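Before a colleague's protein record goes any further, I have to sign it off. I want your independent view on whether this chain really folds as the tokens say. The record follows directly below this note.
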Amino acid sequence: MRPIVLVSLLLASFALAGCGDSGNSFEFRTISAEPSGKHIKIAYAMKPGDGVRMTMQMNGRMKMTGTMDVDMPIDMSFTTTMRCTEVKSNGDKVLAMTIDATALNVGEELSGAMENMDISGTLTLDKTGKVTSMDFDASDPQINAKIGQALKNPGFQYFVPMPPEGMRVGEALDLAKVMPAKAFEELMNSAAGGSTSVKPDLRGEIVLLGTKNIDGEDAAEFGVNMVMNIKLESEAMKMDMGMRVKGKQFCSLRTGLPAGTATSTMEMRLDGAAAGMEYESDSKMTLTITCEPLGR
């Protein structure tokens, strides 16, 4: 799973709890540069048995002041596995995917609340790396239904959808090609219970930084750069929220699967009022993904 997708799901899970009215927006600044060198392409040449096991660890703190004061650690861990099970005659690849071994620590009272959250299913991608279909099931219908539903959203891409000619070092891929605004808006509104129309201002890019050899294979190195701001006022709530994500990710030039170890940081600040409460919140989290290749 891409870091940007995971961050989006986490945000939808708990960032809509509150709201505000001033000064939390982040400014978007590109990290792209004048393209140089030859075009680099991801082949997406998976064969049955190719796969990856990803260990994802998110750590940080959430601080909140106002009607209630909170200063609590956030520790989340996931083990995600993707493995190619079939290559169709038209070149499409079918992958089995699981998200399991989940643990959540958000202060003492909620420690372990989401342990044993298991999701499994399949996804199909075409020869360009675009995910064309998904089918997921969640083990706990109450906890996982929304997450499983979000994973089925075709607007979210698990692989970097490079243009046909590839990319040059310094070139940026618009985040809208990976996470279209409409799809993200639907996820946010679903997380809010559908009672409020949330229209996030989402801007971002994935920039090709170069290539490096990881686990004996050439891999593309990408910079992830995203800013999302939300301002909302309704009878039920007020919100002024800003979020910024920066980091790196690697993927195999042969298969397109995630590779190596990459780290991203997420900063989020919001203030607001909802359900008779007023508060301000400031959070910073680090996401580290370590990938182990399978099937060699």
About this structure: Residues 3-294 form one domain. The CA atoms of residues 211 and 220 lie 4 Å apart. Residues 3-14 form the longest helix (12 residues).
